[in-house]
């Protein structure tokens, strides 16, 4: 039985990382109150610029060199930055403006079910767990009245959230979590700056107040850098189906943050939704009680065979580098 212990530990680490990442993303709603008076798109550009600087510093400190990418990998990385980061943020912002945050929160609550289905033929318990998570996230987010415009923007955000995971999966064997996070954030920064200039003109930037500076620092370092690294480390360990279950923790994180910051007191529906999310995650994770890993595979370009995604290593680098943790 000793040989099963590394696999169990591997799954536990992935579970902890995915849960922390998605809960952290949920805190964005509460902390965003600190920067609500700052130009929206200019603020997003500032957030990702700060995150890109931090990630580049981490990459350099760890001695991780630039990795040459194939044209297909550049397309995936560009698609990840465009849809999973830039367009996702635009869609969330515009949907909230058109219909309030409840509608987009409800639509994004379906992400766990979509990722469970995208992972192949899901185990029945995984599918049931994802469905329960969706129900809980929907209840926690609240079913607002909404508008057609808000719904269309919310669906765009839904596609972006799915892209954030699925477009990264083929890149993780070669690049690892740190490089994927760094490269995508660096690429997304000028995209968000261009969107900000188009939407807000020269007024997209101004000197932030102390509270806004603290808010941007949290959003950049914790919600972007920390959550990205945790998510992209957990994703190959759990596979998209199991990892997707934890997306249901986003509204739970928002509820807890609102309570801690004194912004809102959770209602009975909020608490019931949070309980359903946790129950759904537990059901989904019980789909495989054998302690076996989620074997997400990727092509090994040297041996021309499939290997577990988390075991694949970068093959082509410019200059020496230390192994990424």
UniProtKB/TrEMBL annotation:
| Ranges of compositional bias, category Basic and acidic residues | 307-316
Q: Which InterPro entries match?
A: EamA_dom, EmrE-like
Keywords attached to this Swiss-Prot or TrEMBL record, sorted alphabetically, are: Membrane, Transmembrane, Transmembrane helix
Q: Which GO terms describe its cellular component?
A: membrane
Top-level taxon in the UniProt lineage: Bacteria
Transmembrane segments annotated in the record for this chain: 16-35, 47-67, 74-92, 98-119, 126-145, 151-173, 180-198, 210-232, 244-265, 271-287
Q: Per the record, a Pfam family? A: EamA
Residues of the signal peptide: none
For the region Disordered, what residue ranges are annotated? 305-325
* Name recorded for this polypeptide: Membrane protein
Origin species, per record, is Nonomuraea glycinis
What broad taxonomic lineage does this protein's source fall under?
A: Bacteria, Bacillati, Actinomycetota, Actinomycetes, Streptosporangiales
